[in-house]
Amino acid sequence: MARSLSRDDAFSALLKATESTDRPVADCVTPDIKTQVDELLNSLSRIQRGLSVKVPALDGLFDKLEIFPHISAQNDLRAELETTTVHGDPAIRRLQIRATTISSSKGLAADLVIITHFDDRFFIRNKDKSVITDQDVCNFLVALTRARKKLVFLSTDDAQPTFLGWIDQKLIRRA
Prior knowledge:
The chain is mainly alpha-helical. The protein has two domains: about 80 residues, no CATH class; about 80 residues, no CATH class. It is built from nine helices and two strands, in the order αααααααβααβ. α4 packs across α5. The model has no long low-confidence stretch (mean pLDDT about 80).
């Protein structure tokens, strides 16, 4: 940080001073540099905690860190414009899809839920697939209850999954 806050000759002098002494670098920099570093660190800390930072402080921070926010903003706008010029249903283009594990899906809900790998080899943990544990049943119920309107099971196995037999066959449509 001292490098970006100092003139080249001042930074060279700082390096020489630290070579010839056991003093920490912080003791060798000028009070002005220390103040600037403290201000930059304060801004970074506020950003990290989600607090606002005044524009002049942000400008100084971006300048010292060689971050070019206008270029980033232009890139974001360009990406936004590219997505809005795509043809098709805008509701589908902006559809948010969340991929998660069953245990991580607790507390989540959606109108449509797709459960992949709905096979005994993935849903029944015991190597002897004839033994279904309470945890297997709990995982199935958690997966099942995430859907508000429609639930789709995808299987990679031709055999009917054990848990599918637990659902009223009138409610199942096969594709």
